[in-house]
Amino acid sequence: MLNYFSSYLVIGCIYGVMALGLNLQWGFTGLMNFGIGAFYMLGAYTSAILTCSPSPDHLGGFGLPVILGMLGAAIIPGLVAWLLSYPALRLRGGPFAIALLAIMETLHLVMRNESWLTNGVWGIRGIPRPFFELVNPRAYSFYFLIIAASALILTWLAMQRAVKSPWGRVLRGIREDEYLTSMSGKNIFRYRQQSFVLSSMIMGIAGSLYVHYTGFVSPQVFSPLMSTFIVWLMVMVGGTGSNSGVVLGAFLVWAVWVGSDFLTDLVPASIATQIGFIRMLAVGAILMVTILTRPQGLLARRLFTAEIHGKGEG
Amino acid sequence: MADLLVSGIIYGSIITLAAIGLTLMSDILKFFNFAYGDFFSLGAYGTLLMLGLLPKWAPFPGLSFGWGLILGLLAAVVLTVAVMLLFEWMFFRRLRQLGVSPLFVSIASLGVAFVIRALINIAWGPKVRYYSNVIQISRELPLGIRITSDEIVILISALILVALVYLFLKRTRMGKAMRAASDNPVLAEASGVSTRGVILWTWGISGILVAVAGTFYGIEVQLSPGMGWSFLIAMFVAVIMGGIGSFWGALLGGMTIGISEELITGLVQNLVNSMKIQADISVYKPAVAFVFVVLILLLKPYGIFGKRER
Predict the structure, then answer these.
(1) Is residue A262 situated within a structural domain?
(2) Which end of chain A is more exposed for a tag (fewer CB within 10 A), N or C?
């Protein structure tokens, strides 16, 4: 039971890191990125390939230490985001979301079909788990929780500092009124690019944490729902633009998700097989109700009302 | 080559049908409806539902379907439009009244998408379905073109439907009101155009188009609960490429994506085969739409017939 709970907390922490990353893009800069899963997946695979022992099934296995894998998991998604930012950031709003969605789907195709690189649908096994030999394997999730929680706290502190800095003020300025901010002599593109790249690096680190926790990665893990849209729900529920809010949202949404596991034991088997779809239904319904009743989320910043009830583009 | 072109035109005509509805909706309702792909699936599954309820009529000679599918399609159109109007009445209307910004409405439409997809999954299961298990024998035409009778019917019906929508927008009073509302909503309303009516008609027209497109896709390929979601990017790329709100843009965008997805993957496959490399290029067919996004973004961020916003 304790194991179950600490396992819930570990994944909650990883989703918390992702929600903070998304909040930087959407909450503070107004970038509607529907492709965050692409960078999460990229980070996961980078870390897996860098740290695994050599294997004929996929690229590498370079056997590097986990910490270098995490570094790589930040650098590669950052580089990819930097390259993609040139075409993608020419778009705003809905078209930007579509472009990122297309990027995510394409990357998913690559990861599924290029076996030489990723071992395709069979995935990569035996990814090293840090300090696994030193601790009791049955309580591993408890030890990993220390790593995941420190990552979450560090990201939260970094984000708090970033958004309170002059840099964060410019980002909020872009979100509220791009033209006014550019008239204040700020290079809008550079700031949007920095936010996009930094956030993608955070997604990559989250992906790295995930693979070093589970020790396994395959394309099925990164369905759009589990890698992207559940994070969107967490941010919307928690409060767009509030770092504490989105972390709360992450733990809340994940608690509902995990909690529905217990329901499967209570209901008849015919319904239990449908649980995945009932969860999908719940995700959709919660998202609809949240935006209808409390578009600013549970813990919202006052500043944000101008964006919710104001102009904007679809 | 000619064969790839023909299958591209057929695929493109299905994208075009859906994209015309989507471009109207994005333009007049002023948000990106991410549930549109799942209405596409709903249309297809609606036809499947009716097909099961109706008596089993014999298929038309040479075709894989009979009266059952045609009546089923009509019923599915009604069902899709009804579900759309239900969501409009229960949900999107309230969001508009609350003054929620278009970006938030787009995210909310994602919620609608998940609800519909989950319901389709619960009702029909995740397995792939077909309307009919009749195997169509394709006709051999000159230039190595292979086409089934079903495909000819799909192509002609799509053409007729597109023409009807065009006449509706050009000739009827409501069509003109819709174009006026897209051009300048404030001026249109001041001139006595009913915004409410325009919005309802927009849902209606796109509902008809998307349900027909979904069913055609079901006839041509197969049905699966994720069909609309995977089709969504192609539809949106057609809309963005042509310019949001442009009828001709959606037509051009839809056909271009359909043809190039078939043609590019086919030609690259031939190239790879001739170089004696073992590789399956067709799995990357959806990625062609992505390459188009990048190209269009670099060349024309507002689309070919698009109007620059603000």
Answers:
(1) no
(2) N
In this complex, is the C-beta atom of A31 within 8 Å of any C-beta atom belonging to chain B?
Answer: no
The pair of three-digit structure tokens given for residue B39, joined into one six-digit string: 């209405």
Q: Does residue B155 contact residue B9 with C-beta atoms inside 8 Å? A: yes
CB < 8 Å from B in window 96-115 of A: 97-99, 101-103, 105-106, 109, 112-113
Q: What is the CA radius of gyration of chain B?
A: 20
- Of A106, A281, A291, which has the smallest distance from its Cβ to B107's Cβ? A291
CB contact under 8 A, A295 and B297: no
| Ranges A17-21, A274-278, B278-282, most confident | A17-21
Confirm whether A250 is domain-assigned: no
Task: Give the number of domains in chain B.
Answer: 1
Domain count, chain A: 1
pLDDT digits (tens, 9 = 90+) for A149-191: 999 999 999 999 998 899 999 998 888 888 888 888 889 999 9
| Inside any domain, residue B8 | yes
Residue B278: closest C-alpha in chain A: A114
Residue A89 near residue A192, CB atoms below 8 Å: yes
Tokens of B12: 């493109």
Q: Is B180 within the bounds of a domain?
A: yes
Provide the shortest C-alpha distance from residue A92 to chain B (in Å): 10
How far is B197 from chain A, CA to nearest CA, in Å?
21
Query: In chain B, which residue's Cα lies nearest the Cα of A291?
Result: B108
CA A131 to chain centre: 25
pLDDT value of position B208: 96
By CB atoms closer than 10 A (0-12, 13-18, 19+), residue B167 is exposed
Domain residues for A194? 2-223+302-308
pLDDT at B277 over 80: no
**A52 lies in some domain:** yes
User: For the whole model, what pTM was predicted?
Assistant: 0.91
Cα distances from A15 to residues A43, A202, B148, in angstroms, run 14, 11, 49
Report d(CA A201, CA A195) in Å as an integer. 10
Residues in chain B: 310
A241 found inside a domain: no
Does an H or E element contain B144, and which?
Answer: none
Kindly state the percentage of chain A with pLDDT values over 70.
Answer: 94
Chain-chain contact of A295 with B94 (C-beta, under 8 angstroms) = no
The first and second tokens of residue B178, run together, are 């819709």
* Domain extent for B55: 2-227
B229 neighbors B117 (Cβ within 8 angstroms)? yes
A261: contact with B, CB 8 A cutoff: no
A299: confidence class by pLDDT, cuts 50, 70, 90: low
- B306's CB contacts (< 8 A; 6+ apart) are B242, B243, B244, B245, B246, B249, B300
pLDDT tens digit sequence for A88-108: 898 888 889 998 999 999 999
SS3 (DSSP) at A254? helix
Q: In this structure, is residue B94 part of a structural domain? A: yes
Residue B286 forms part of a structural domain: no
> Within chain A, what is the greatest distance between any pair of CA atoms?
63
